[in-house]
Design goal:
The protein has 336 residues and is an alpha/beta fold. It folds into 2 domains: 199 residues, Isopropylmalate Dehydrogenase; 128 residues, 3-Layer(aba) Sandwich (Isopropylmalate Dehydrogenase). It is built from 11 helices and 12 strands. The strands form 2 sheets. The protein has a 10-stranded mixed beta sheet with strand order 2-1-3-12-11-4-5-10-8-9, sandwiched between helices. α6 links the parallel β8 and β9. α7 packs parallel to α8. The longest helix has 17 residues. The two termini are 22 Å apart. Belongs to the isocitrate and isopropylmalate dehydrogenases family. InterPro entries: IsoCit/isopropylmalate_DH_CS, IsoPropMal-DH-like_dom. It holds the Pfam family Iso_dh. GO terms for molecular function: isocitrate dehydrogenase (NAD+) activity; magnesium ion binding; NAD binding.
């Protein structure tokens, strides 16, 4: 049986614990993966590397084209770049996909939510282009640039994903009423592309109204596609609707590479205590399996996680239990 190589980045803080949890669950399924572990971020510097993105890590990712990643700490101080942003740019991971799916048994205000946020991952204000501060510290500037190609790629990606997954509607979130150049271009391109998908419902919404309606009437949303900075905020808001970032996986997709990750931080305050909730990266591993065509295995993981949470079986403290990372992993594996 042939195997699929996957680069594994365990990350910093709670990263090694929760990624080990995901690997245990994957091994219980035995989906034919072959792992190459590399280090980036603070872990790479601690191991003696001179950069947060060592050449060995870059070479592995270029070779496998698949990454399972825990949370990574970008060291403080000038000169250190964000590892996440650097990886998105280096490997052209232009589409950020964040599913939000309600789970029975969580302390959530809503039930039955199933929303996917699709975020343009490389342009816009979030990319950090053109940042300057005057010598006297009284004026700061940043540049927001988005191209027609970036708009076309991400909006078409969202519509194609919606169609392939049997979704019903795509919503374009924008701020074209004020940001008439950048958001205006995004909206214009979105309107053009939407005409090619008459099998899908589509609408458009100003991003602040989108945030309000997500809180008040989230059931009206299905797939949301938006620009980089707005997507960063909206996807976290959606995670909050179902109980927090610990329950939300993320994917960064490009033409030749895909990275699947926990979307929360490295949580240094609980690192080493064995109580971190691994659900985010476990569900990210299910997205990875889905990406390589192992949909049934991906669904088995999702069903097992949902059942363990619904039964409140050995869940971690953030879910109201007294379980550990390891004990919750056992509960999921028993349900596979």
């Amino acid at each position: 049986m042939s195997t699929t190589p996957v680069t594994v980045i365990k990350g910093d803080g709670i990263g090694p614990d929760i990624v080990d949890s995901a690997l245990r669950i994957l091994e219980a399924l035995d989906p034919g993966l072959d792992y190459e572990e590399v280090q980036v971020g603070q872990a790479a510097l601690d191991a003696g590397a001179s950069d947060v993105m060592p050449e060995a890590a870059i070479a592995s990712i270029e070779r496998t084209g698949l990454v399972l990643k825990g949370p990574v700490t970008t060291p403080s101080g000038k000169g250190y770049r964000s590892v996440n942003v650097a990886m998105r740019k280096k490997f052209d991971l232009y589409a950020n996909v964040r599913p939000t799916l309600s789970m029975p048994g969580t302390q959530s205000r809503y039930e039955g939510l199933d929303i996917i946020t699709v975020r343009e991952n490389k342009g816009g204000m979030y990319s950090g282009e053109g940042q300057t501060v005057s010598e006297d510290g009284t004026r700061a500037e940043a540049l927001s640039v988005i191209t027609r190609e970036q708009c076309e790629r991400i909006i078409r990606f969202a519509f194609e994903m919606a169609r392939s997954r049997g979704r019903r509607k795509v919503t374009l979130a924008h701020k074209a009423n004020i940001m008439k150049s950048t958001s205006g271009l995004f909206l214009d391109v979105g309107r053009e592309i939407a005409q090619e998908y008459d099998d899908l419902e589509h609408d458009e919404i100003i991003v602040d109204a989108c945030a309000m309606k997500l809180v008040m009437y989230p059931e009206q949303f299905d797939v949301i596609v938006t620009t980089n900075l707005f997507g960063d905020i909206i996807s976290d808001l959606c995670a909050g609707l179902i109980g927090g970032l610990g329950l939300a996986p993320g994917a960064n997709i490009g033409e030749n590479c895909a990275m699947f990750e926990a979307v929360h931080g490295s949580a240094p305050d609980i690192a080493g205590k064995g109580i971190a909730n691994p659900t985010s990266v476990v569900l990210a591993s299910a997205l990875l399996l889905e990406h390589i065509g192992r949909r049934e295995d991906a669904e088995r993981i999702r069903r097992a996680v949902r059942a363990a949470v619904a039964d409140h079986d050995r869940v971690t403290p953030d879910l109201g239990g007294d379980g550990t990372t390891s004990s919750f992993t056992d509960a999921v594996i028993e349900r596979l």
